Sequence to fold (129 residues):
Amino acid sequence: QVQLVESGGGLVQAGGSLRLACAASGRTTSSYAMAWFRQAPGKEREFVAAVSWSGGSTYYADSVKGRFTISKNNTKTTASLQMNSLKPGDTAVYYCAAGGPWLFYSRADYYTRGKYDSWGQGTQVTVSP
Fold:
């Protein structure tokens, strides 16, 4: 497992932008796939976006495609989520997650919560109307 620390949440008006960051530390973190999930009050935690260990492949939930962009930095130890055109429906606690490369064999694996074995504490994103 690795340690994950999220930053960048906050309050924004609809149509605005926020950028979340997730810093990973621990052994071989540069080889981990990383993702963002979110959980709104009274709802299940849901997949938002993921990036492969190399940063070369990205995956998005249909609800955020075209508005959110996930990326890794050059050292591959930080994953960022750029969120544009935010909507009130994006309000949730956003969680960073990571998983070792041995856990991902197909596209579907990146969308699967159970494939990620390390989780951050979460950061609140609130979008006002």
Summary: The longest strand covers residues 18-25.
